[in-house]
Amino acid sequence: MSRSLPSRVVGTLLGVLLILNTAVITADKGPAVPGAQMRRSGRDGLVVLRHDDTYFPFHVPAPERGQVSVQTANIDVNWNPASCLYSTTPWPANAQSAFSYAVSIWETLLDASQTVVIDACWTPDLAPDELGAAGPTFIYHDPSLPFAETWYPAALANEFYGADLSPREAEVLAHFNSGISWYLGTDGSPGASQVDFATVVLHEVCHGLGFGGSMTVDGGLGSWGWDWSPYPAVYDRFTENAASQPLLDFENGSTALGTQLTSQDIFFSGAQANAANGGTPPELYAPSSWQQGSSYSHLDESFNGTPNALMTYSLANAESVHYPGPVALGMLEDMGWTAADPAPTVTSITPGSAMNTGTVHVTNLAGTNLLPGASVLLTKSGETPIPGDSVVVVPPNQITCDLDLSGAATGLWNVKVTNPDAQWGELANGFVIMDETWTKTFLPLVLRNHP
User: Cα(60)–Cα(186) distance, rounded to whole angstroms?
Assistant: First the structure.
């Protein structure tokens, strides 16, 4: 399949102070953390997913297909806010539902302490082959971050600081083409001439989280840092050529860098990404003619038709990918995101008479140094607690139990794991018994209605 698209721009921010000779714009509201410098992204800050108008009936399911999943991040959505860069039309209710479904997948894949807010725009103004366009609303740099003189997307910067740097602003800005023949279901079954909307949302949210760099080619000259800043994006810190030379080692604004970026042979090399790709750096999309917004900020076409297909640069009709894939998740981890602990695995379900009823067999509740005799309890405000039956502990951090969800209300339930109160610990001079109960309450389980 072919793929292509347009991309980022950092536009003018009204009401800001331009600090001369620094190429940095700091909003008048100011970041919440002193020393952090920020800049608003505009149209060139958006990475676009392009429509491949061919028939490719390929499906990757969501990581959680059962009735129980663990929410380890929180993502909120603003529908058609004032920050939209294009005109908007009202969101269809089923498009909002599919969007929320895609967001719920991301909420189980990242372990994040700070809420990520997405400004979501439903617009007729994208080009006919542009499915969506997204990027971070702001970028930040600060010498205290892991890479100095490096731009970080707003959501990731918030995680490093443990605080919302711009509490009045969203972290991600995403636009979606209202004129596409969308499939707005969530079962991954688009028709032969339909585009799966949930897949597009998953893709664009990933760009908003930082999947994309600042490099570009213009007139044969390759450069990074956009045209207003000498600093690269954190993504750029991991890119290299086939000889393992970092692209940042090439002169900024040079023909040599331009040649590399159009060599059809560039890679993202990070420990987690490489491990997810069988021990080798995953290849990036680098066609011989630079395609703004497509080149460099997507995985290579060789990932099409695999579990890592989501972050290639276009999407075909009937194609649905409801999982970012281990390579994209590894790339996010290399840039600084923390992946969630393994979600509960539903190994068997005995259905009841209605949705979300029956007995569910759950494994991989993440914990620490679990001992035989540990217990599991689901709690929800206003609801009767649900104990785990037939609890089996597999040290150090796995529990298998049965949960009788007959009549359980949908929504968020806290998972509480308690170790026995007689814990043995080994010291250099022998053993000591600790008379205390070890308790850990995990982020909530989400009981959802599924067909």
Answer: 12
